[in-house]
Amino acid sequence: MIRLGDVTYFYPRATTPALAGVTLEIPTGQFCAVIGANGAGKSTLCYTLAGFVPHFYRGKLSGGVEVAGVDVPASSLAQLAGHVGLVFANPFNQITGARFSVREEIAFGLENMGVPLEEMATRVEDILGFAGLRDLAERSPFALSGGQQQRLAIASVLVMRPPVIVLDEPTSQLDPIGSREVFAVLRDLAATDAATVVLAEQKLEWVAVFADRVIVLHEGRIVADGLPGDVLASADLAQYGLQPTRYTQAARAAQAAGFRADRDDLPVTLEEAVEFFR
Amino acid sequence: MSTSFSLYIPRESGMHRLHPLTKLALVAFCLVLGLFLPGVWLTYLAFMLLIVPLAAWAGVLPSFLRAVFKTALPVVISVFLVQGLFWPGGTPILHLGPLSLKQEGLQFAIRSAGRFITVVSSFLLLTFTTRPDGLMLALSQRGFPNSIAYIMLATMQIVPRFQTKANTILDAQRSRGLETEGNLLVRLRALLPLVQPLLLGSIIDIEERAIALEVRAFGRPGPKTSLLVLHDTPAQRVLRWLLLLAMLAVIGWRLYLAIAPRLAA
Amino acid sequence: MTAGGQRTTDDRGAATGAALAPMPIVVANVSFTYPSGTQALRGVSLRVAPGEAVAIVGENGAGKTTLVKHLNGLLKPSEGSVVVGDWDTREHTVAKMAARVGYVFQNPDDQIVERTVGDEVAFGPRRLGQPEAERQANVAAALATVGLTDAAATHPYDLTTPQRKLVTLASVLAMRTPIVIFDEPTMGQDAGGVALIGGIVESLKAEGRTVLTITHDIDFCAAHFGRAIVMAAGQALADGPAAEVLTRADVLATTNVEPPQLVRLAQALRLARAPLTVEGFVAEIVGRGQ
Q1: What is the pTM assigned to this prediction?
Q2: CB A81 to CB B220 under 8 A?
Q3: Structural domain harbouring A271
């Protein structure tokens, strides 16, 4: 359960807020996507949920941030580790550099948390399978592709079993295969209800397929909030600096040309588009 | 895909199986020998009779010798040239045009080279036979601060990244017309634009890595467990104390040799 | 300088204002092996006519970046040759090739060296020896194209990363090279950024310049590039009109690339044609007689 109450945040020396009056409630187990133009506040929102705003970035934060029962601004980063997991775009910068095999890299967080060895071994084994890294377990983290490194970063955070995991454009530096690998892990995560997932993304086609809920940020405010099928088909996306999928664009253009103009449920995914145009 | 930067060579050798602190003690002993043994030739004896056999025992002799050669050769050559040719006064034993090779200079060079080789090969022996994370764990178990251990460990990993980044930055500037091929002056001048992107880019990387470490509970106080298990034996503990005593003895001997003439006089 | 304004022996310094005329690129049976032993290109041959817009797609490790680095001389072929206009890349330094081939690197932080956006955009033109008036005009035009005119005095690191990407784009645009290469230009950009970069590609095409891009964004490729080259394991699997190449899902799949969204939709609907544009798709649907 995530609760944001009228959150406003200014980066140090900034005159305009990065987040303005954000109020949001995300129930446990939901896969919530956050979309918006660059600069809209997606990253800031991710860092706020994980506590790096304000503890790492300083600045002025007002309003309440409660994640999995923990008051985030009132807790230290050390206390938050294990409650909120954070994965961001650059795969290489998430490798600690202190461990020389994938297995040990994953165990790093558990070592820091003082998890007993037996439990550690079990959890690491489980996550290796879940993230599809079993064949790579003894390889050096530096000898992996970008997509594999990003899966490693996610696995290293998931193994700590945080109730909430926040991902800030995790596929932006990856090729299509790497992206798909990451989305597959997230999909399985959402399916097992193991955690609440908050994902900031630009690749709307994937958001449409995987997310339970889509929130649109614009200039630090929430301007839309609902089901992917509704939010991503909305005609308002353009004014928020977003472009719907080609499926939605094609359907809209086809309706303008008179095709199925009576339907008001525009497709956002390939499947829905096939159904729409059949 | 960069590979991790570590001279460590995994082997199933007796040397490798020693506790990291034992290896550290052995290497510290070799270091002390290198720095404090009197005379000209004793350091070479230490190298041949102690360091090289240890490297052989560890099964890393070929790579080890190659690394020692590569690291020591430039320094040894310059020491010989500088001390041999430019020793003030002294006894010339060979004339090379306007310069002459002096006996005292040569002796000094041989002694300095011996020390240098012993010191450098000690460090190399340690890195070739000791897992970096094992050594850091051993130190932190004895109270060494975690963050310093991490900095030492992780910095080594970042070095090849730095090198690749520097090359990429140089390529990007060449692609914008910065001439890098040519005489030495041209090439040196071409390095100036590297500074800003290398530094600022690295700062961004460091900031993100710091965040990633926090997420992985690195800053969490309290007891930590370790996947890596270090094996220590009573025999090794005794050996470490003996080595410590031996180091003190060598240093004491050296001090005595230095002070004794004065006392006698 | 020849009568047609086309410079031949040295393109720098003595510029009198005319930009370099467009020129072809000929890659002749190029193979390349890295010092580490990996063979990254195996006998690749292609010709790029002046003014073409070519996208190179394929999985990581297919050889896309290796190929493109041969075009401005950053890499010299182990076998075969690369000739840009009348210059063999092996006979000229990379810095000299920069007058003909502009290369926008993937990570802007690898390219930015100056302390203001204006100086950064002027870096390339300065190295190329553009006369002051010409240089200032090119810089101003480039900044206007990317929408950063107001940021000319800002330190590049005070901008966001996507904005820094636009700075590096502008810095290559200001060099006015007849050939421009983009490496993953839309990575990290939002819809507005992608549209802006698409617009830049279109205006380069309108000026008759040759544009090449490496991209994972297959929809961006479909929208702006008339020719697509699909690479895998150091070879070109397919090379032809994008409208044709991007419909070959089986070939694309071997190198981990999916067809553009509209193509996948058209193929799922078993339409007669798989258009690359929304307009084309709608026309196809309407014309289907349904």
Answers
A1: 0.85
A2: yes
A3: 245-278
